[in-house]
Amino acid sequence: MQVILDQDRCCSSGQCVLTAPEVFGQSDEDGLVMLRRSSPEPGLYADVRLAAALCPGGAITVGEATGTP
After folding, report:
1. What whole-number distance in Å separates Cα of residue 59 and Cα of residue 10?
2. Could you tell me what percent of the chain has a pLDDT over 70?
3. d(CA 47, CA 40)
4. Where are the alpha helices (DSSP H) in 1-69?
5. pLDDT at position 4, please?
6. How far is Cα of residue 24 from the mean position of the Cα atoms in its chain?
7. How distant, in Å, are the alpha carbons of 11, 22, 52, 64 from that of 15?
8. Are the beta carbons of 1 and 62 closer than 8 angstroms?
9. DSSP state, residue 42
């Protein structure tokens, strides 16, 4: 899984941080989302997908990772 953020679309709701705090953080300065892990482990996939679905600004894109580990 590959997680991509578009901070220009972030509206600082914090839903992603509440849903997947291991993957998303929130800036103390402006409240915008920060990515802690762009390639989370499989145990976090469901939470990351839910965070993307809950994002009111559509700032989170989830795709398949490229390459083989």
Report:
1. 5
2. 94
3. 10
4. 15-19, 45-54
5. 96
6. 5
7. 10, 13, 9, 22
8. yes
9. G
